Amino acid sequence: MAYRWSNDLTRADITPKSAFLNRRQILVGTVGLGAIGLVGSAAQAQTLEPNTLEEITSYNNFYEFGTGKTDPAQNAGALVTSPWSIKVDGMVDNPGDYGLADLLDGLTVEDRIYRFRCVEAWSMVVPWNGIELADILNKVGVQSGAKYVAFETVVQPENMVGVQRRVLDFPYVEGLRLDEAMHPLTLMATGIYDEPLANQSGAPIRLVVPWKYGFKSIKSIVRITLTDEEPPTSWNKVSAREYGFYSNVNPQVDHPRWSQATERKIGGGLFASRQDTLMFNGYAEVAGLYEGMDLSEFF
Ligand code: MTE
Predict the structure, then answer these.
(1) Which residue, among 137, 145, 148, has the nearest Cα to 230 in the 3D structure?
(2) Among 113, 168, 232, 263, which is least packed, fewest CB within 10 Å?
């Protein structure tokens, strides 16, 4: 089911979790992909048993709130998420500082169960609610000549304990090629399990690119810039040989310090066996975006 984003949605408009899960059992593996006419994905052949909300919101990476996996859940309560505005600038027809609700007004909120694979070789399955990034970009009007989209996370030094420690060069920044950004799988998530995003998950709005390693999925976004140059990205600035701009999930290209062939599913229990990592995290339909590119070179 998809519904329209509106300024006046109330809690009553939100699907009860039980209904949400029942619907998912029927649609498992096809939601999102089937709905937009993308078939033949390896991910569809797998059972996408979503992680619990508890698992999804208690094991996180959000370095602005510390580097430990439970630090974000402990510290992100201090993040101020309302009011929230997003600066849209660069090569767009309608640049400006948009209130979040204004930017999303009238756009369709989609339900998508996506596999989520971190570069650290753990994974989850997350039932997101969000808007296709393409819808937002079409609304602001991408100018011809734009080739990339750059994103920036909020910096609230007094509310973000990790920013003071300067582990990364904040603000956290990320980027996509324009065709990746326009792909129907690319989502700007505003919720999980029909609940607004928890702060540690990147409230009030974060990127989700399911065929790429998780660090591309930048959280708590306050700026979107259209540009004709490949934008800098946070982890690439830390170590270019370890974290490329593309960072497509690829079991054949190991991280210099560990294998990417398998992954540990969070919530599987101590003795669960590792599962094979799939090319493009199972979203084989994106392969056409990289035709002619050597994916061991453009990693
Ligand atoms: N966004 C910001 N602003 N800061 C971060 O540290 N971590 C990234 C990504 N987005 C990160 C971020 C990494 S490494 C991963 S794996 C995912 O967020 C984790 O998302 P999750 O905590 O919702 O699972």
Answers:
(1) 148
(2) 232
What is the atom index within ligand 1 of the atom nearest the CA of 202?
23
Question: Could you tell me which of 45, 53, 12, 7 has the C-alpha nearest to residue 29?
Answer: 45
* CA-proximal residue: ligand 1, atom 23 (nearest): 201
Phi, psi of 255, rounded to the nearest 5 degrees: -65, 145
Atom number of ligand 1 nearest to Cα 207: 10
Q: What is the distance in angstroms between the CA of the first residue and the CA of the last residue of the chain?
A: 35
CB-ligand 1 contact for 61 (6 Å cutoff) = yes
Which amino acid is residue 76, in one-letter code?
A
234 C-beta closer than 6 A to ligand 1:
no
Distance 68 CA to ligand 1 centre (A): 12
Which CATH architecture describes the domain 11-290? Alpha-Beta Complex (3.90)
The least confident of 14-23, 104-113, 181-190, 222-231 is 14-23
Q: How far is CA 277 from CA 26, 163, 235, 280, in A?
A: 25, 32, 21, 9
Whether the per-residue pLDDT at 49 is higher than 60: the answer is yes
**For position 31, what pLDDT does the model report?**
39
**What confidence tens digit (pLDDT) does each residue in 202-244 have?**
999 999 999 999 999 999 999 999 999 999 999 999 999 999 9
Q: Please give the distance, rounded to the nearest whole angstrom, from the Cα atom of residue 214 to the centre of ligand 1.
A: 6
**Distance of CA 216 from the midpoint of ligand 1 (Å):** 8
Distance 207 CA to ligand 1 centre (A): 10
**Over 70: is that where the pLDDT of 9 sits?**
no
What are the sequence ranges of the domains in the chain? 11-290
Query: In the prediction, which pLDDT does 27 show?
Result: 40
